[in-house]
C-alpha cells in the first residue's frame, strides 16, 4: 500500500472536507448504515408523527438557548 500521509497532509482543510464528502457520497447507503427493521419502523413512525403536527416541536434557536443555559 502506498503511504499517502504526505499527500493527505498537504491538503488544505477545505480540500480534506471535500474529500470526505466524496468518500461519503461513494458509499452505498444500505451498506454504510444498515437499518434494522425495528429501527426503520421507528424512523417511519417519527416521520409520520412530525408530518402530522409540524408545529409540535420547538425552534432550533430555542433549543440551543435552553441547552446553553443548562451548561452554565
TrEMBL record:
Pfam families: Unstab_antitox (PF09720). It comes from the Bacteria. InterPro entries: CHP02574_addiction_mod (IPR013406). This is Addiction module protein. It comes from Pseudogemmatithrix spongiicola.
Amino acid at each position: 500500500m502506498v503511504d499517502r500521509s504526505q499527500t493527505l497532509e498537504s491538503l488544505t482543510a477545505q480540500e480534506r472536507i471535500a474529500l470526505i464528502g466524496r468518500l461519503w457520497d461513494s458509499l452505498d447507503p444500505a451498506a454504510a448504515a444498515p437499518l434494522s427493521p425495528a429501527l426503520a419502523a421507528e424512523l417511519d413512525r417519527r416521520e409520520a408523527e412530525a408530518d402530522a403536527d409540524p408545529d409540535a416541536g420547538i425552534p432550533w434557536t430555542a433549543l440551543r438557548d435552553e441547552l446553553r443555559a443548562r451548561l452554565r
